[in-house]
């Protein structure tokens, strides 16, 4: 199925949720409201004509000051059976940045959603284990936000000294083959 045909199927089924559908370089991108993302993803997964059985990637994007809704959660989907792809973008506001988790549809979304939470501060409702994955648990802020300081937090991370001590001990360790 052609990318714009897939976008049109989404528009037919979820008319009030689709904000925009466009094609660029033979790839379709459908921008959606966030409220029914789980239902839309289940439809794309379960519909026999679409069969999007593979979540290639899920990531965040920050459009601070450029869009009314600051964040997008972007889903790249692929159908192994049908060999077609689609990109979904769900708009998420800066105030109360949250969206439903799609781990019930694709178990592999677990780590992607944790990374998006960690880097952008977007909460995924219904996620089975939403916690930081790249940054330490006590890290303050979300490093991929446009307003995150380039040099990092103003104060030094509390675990920094501990990491330095471990590094020094490791440096003196002799490796034997």
List key phrases describing it.
elongated; two-stranded parallel sheet; alpha/beta; 177 residues; 4 helices; Beta Polymerase, domain 2
Report on the architecture of this protein.
With 177 residues, the protein is α/β, with parallel strands linked by helices. The chain has one domain (3-170): 2-Layer Sandwich (Beta Polymerase, domain 2), CATH 3.30.460. Helix content is 25%, strand content 26%.
Précis, in short:
The protein has about 180 residues and is of the alpha/beta class. The protein contains four helices and seven strands.
CATH architecture: 2-Layer Sandwich
**SS elements, strand count:** 7
Q: In the CATH scheme, what's the topology name?
A: Beta Polymerase, domain 2
Order of helices and strands: HEEHEEEEHEH
Task: Determine Rg (CA atoms, Å).
Answer: 20 Å
Q: Can you give the helix content as a percent range?
A: 25-40%
Unreliable segments (pLDDT under 50, ≥5 consecutive)? none
- In order across it, which strands form the biggest sheet? 1-2-5-4-3
**By CATH's scheme, which homologous superfamily applies?**
NADH:ubiquinone oxidoreductase Nqo5 subunit
**Assembly annotation:** single chain
* Helix/sheet category: alpha/beta
Strand content: 25-35%
Instruction: Quickly count the domains.
Output: 1
Mean pLDDT, rounded to whole units? 90
Q: What does the largest sheet look like?
A: 5 strands, mixed
Count of alpha and pi helical runs:
4
CATH class: Alpha Beta
Shape label: elongated
**Termini, distance in Å?**
55 Å
């Amino acid at each position: 199925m052609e990318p714009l045909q897939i976008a049109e199927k989404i528009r037919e089924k979820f008319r009030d949720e689709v904000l925009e559908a466009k094609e660029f370089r033979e790839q379709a991108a459908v921008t959606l409201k966030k409220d029914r993302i789980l239902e839309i993803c289940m439809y794309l997964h379960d519909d026999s004509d679409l069969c999007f059985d593979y979540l290639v990637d899920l990531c965040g994007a920050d459009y601070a000051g450029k869009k009314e809704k600051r964040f997008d959660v972007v889903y790249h989907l692929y159908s192994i059976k049908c060999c077609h792809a689609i990109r979904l973008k769900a708009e998420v506001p800066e105030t109360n940045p949250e969206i439903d988790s799609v781990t019930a549809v694709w178990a592999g979304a677990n780590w992607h959603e944790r990374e998006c939470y960690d880097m952008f501060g977007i909460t995924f409702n219904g996620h089975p284990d939403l916690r930081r994955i790249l940054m330490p648990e006590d890290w303050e802020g979300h490093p991929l936000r446009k307003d995150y300081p380039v040099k990092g937090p103003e104060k030094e991370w509390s675990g920094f000294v501990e990491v330095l001590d471990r590094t020094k001990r490791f440096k003196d360790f002799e490796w034997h083959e």
